[in-house]
Amino acid sequence: MNPIIEVSVGGWDLEIGAYRLMLLAAIAVTIVVGLHMAARVGISRRAMAWVMAGSALGALAGARIMAVVGTQSPEGDLGSRLLRLSAGDFALYGGLIGGGLVGWAVCRLARMKPLQAADALAPALGAGIVLMRVGCLLSGCCFGNPTQLPWGITYPSGSTPHLHQILSGNSIFTTISGPVPVHPFPVYDLASALTGALLAAHVTRRGWRAGSGMAVFVLWYSTWRLVLSPFRADIGTSVLPGWFWPALFLAAAVAAGSWLASSWKVMSHRGHRRFAIIGLVLSVLLAACGGSAGSDTTVPVETTITTTSTTLAETTTSTQPSTTVATVATSTTVTTAPDIEDLADGSGCRPGSGPLPDGFWFGLVASRSNESLEFDLACWFTDDAATQAAAEDGEESPPPNDYYVRNSNPDTREVPLGDAVDVSFFPDGDPANGTEIDYDDWAAMVAARGYELGVWLEIEGGVITDILEQWVP
User: Fold this and answer.
1) What are the residue ranges of helices labelled H in 178-330?
2) DSSP string covering 372-434, please?
3) Which of 15, 19, 130, 330 would suit a FRET pair with 259, their CA atoms being 20 to 30 Å apart?
4) pLDDT-derived band of residue 172, with 50, 70 and 90 as boundaries?
């Protein structure tokens, strides 16, 4: 613990609070990482700077409002605390909510896609939280409950954690023997934020659907905040009910998990099934704790036909001794296997004639223009469905790499483009180098690359809203 840091600059001795210094460092690092990640999601650094400036103002306002409204303090009335220029009185989740709302508004005004900006901000946000928690550790705030675990940390006598231990009931023993070790809550929290930032950066670099980076970060970080809640000391200043913060963490995690679950089809198409499963499992576990998570993923259901009961009447014959046939009730279940094309990934591959309905559709691009794509719809199978489809077609089964494409219909469809279509693109075919670009750039870069990959079209309102290239090994 070192709440005041002394710095010598050009013969001048300066003293600055550790939390204030780390807060400034967090802001600087967030800006640097955010601008770096902007290029990954296809946003200019200038546009990203405006988004981050708006988000920063919203975050400061939201963090201060939630902290002041949610706690009691002898240091002035509500209004003076709101306007006080200090590094204290901030609530992290209030900042996340305020920054998110203002950032979204700036994106809409600038005609940018908020989900892309969110993906750029997620790793930056995690890096900023890491430095803020270092400030908490140095200044002695946000400390944990007493523990006998070997990694517990002991704050100095007279520090805020020590005074809290005296006032909270450990009194005479704590006063005589000194401070007792506590859970290093800031270390726990910075570890979860750092891991979440790395996961978000990985997801964004791999070219997942826009918004997945932020969703993964929120799911991961909020889940750990919920798990770690019992280890943080309650200093008794909150005026909110005890369930408020766990409920907020739960709601954030379930919302992010539900969003990832709704994107299950897209992510599984592109080889991200493992990470989608993690999101689904976490959201289901959180739902079991009191929340709820939804998924629009559908599972093929076998058709069952049950016959009515049949009774054989009692009969006799004239040439044989009288024989009684017992009454027998029979119930026959006939299971009709679904057609294999009903098991294709996405929205299937049999939409009928006419325009493609809303959904996720796999196929090949026959040609492209500024207004539409000429699209050759195909069936994309994975897992057991791929094995069955390949066997039906007389091909190697199980197929190599656990996927199989069937394209037996030569007809193509003209599919109109929506406004500001984004494309998840693999410049050199390597999924590690995936990025998001706009449609016009994609058309030019595909021509330069020299070959086409299969694509997934996301159709909403009858037009293409997103295009996702399908990498194949």
Assistant:
1) 185-205, 212-228, 244-262, 264-269, 273-288
2) EEEEEE-EEEEHHHHHHHHHHTTS-SSPGGGEEEE------EEEEEEEEEEEEE-TTS-GGG-
3) 130
4) very low
Query: Which segments within 270-338 are labelled E, that is strand?
Result: 303-306, 333-336
Prediction pTM value: 0.58
Number of alpha carbons in the 13 Å side-chain half-sphere of residue 199: 20
Please state the length of the chain. Answer: 473
Burial-class residue 407 by CB neighbours within 10 Å (0-12, 13-18, 19+): middle
**Phi then psi dihedrals of residue 414, to 5 deg:** -90, 115
* Residue 363 · residue 350 · CB < 8 Å: no
The answer for residues whose C-beta is within 8 angstroms of residue 34's C-beta and 6 or more apart is: 48, 52, 120, 121, 124
Confidence of residue 321 (pLDDT cuts 50, 70, 90): very low
CB-based contact 226:252 (threshold 8 Å): no
Rounded to 5 degrees, φ, ψ at 468 are -125, 115
Q: Which of 28-37, 99-108, 163-172 has the lowest mean pLDDT?
A: 163-172
At 4, the amino acid letter reads I
Q: Is the bond preceding residue 398 a cis peptide, omega within 30 degrees?
A: yes
Task: Give Cα separations from 406 to 232, 358, 361, 391, 471 (angstroms).
Answer: 55, 21, 13, 12, 16
Report the Cα 374 to chain-centroid distance in Å. 33
Task: Please state, in angstroms and rounded to a whole number, the distance separating the CA atoms of residues 427 and 205.
Answer: 13
**Block residue for tokens 């103002």:** 57
Residue 196 vs residues 68, 128, 177, 215: alpha-carbon distances, Å? 28, 12, 39, 10
Q: Predicted confidence band at 308 (pLDDT cuts at 50, 70, 90)?
A: very low
Bridge partner list, 14: 7
Contacts of 308 (CB under 8 A, 6+ apart): none
- Give the contacts of 429 (CB within 8 A, at least 6 positions apart): 449, 453, 471
Q: pLDDT (tens digit, 9 = 90+) per residue, 182-196?
A: 899 999 999 999 999
**Residue 278's closest CA among 223, 205, 227?**
223
> Strands 413-425, 463-469: parallel, antiparallel or unpaired by DSSP?
parallel
Cα end-to-end distance, the chain, whole Å: 52
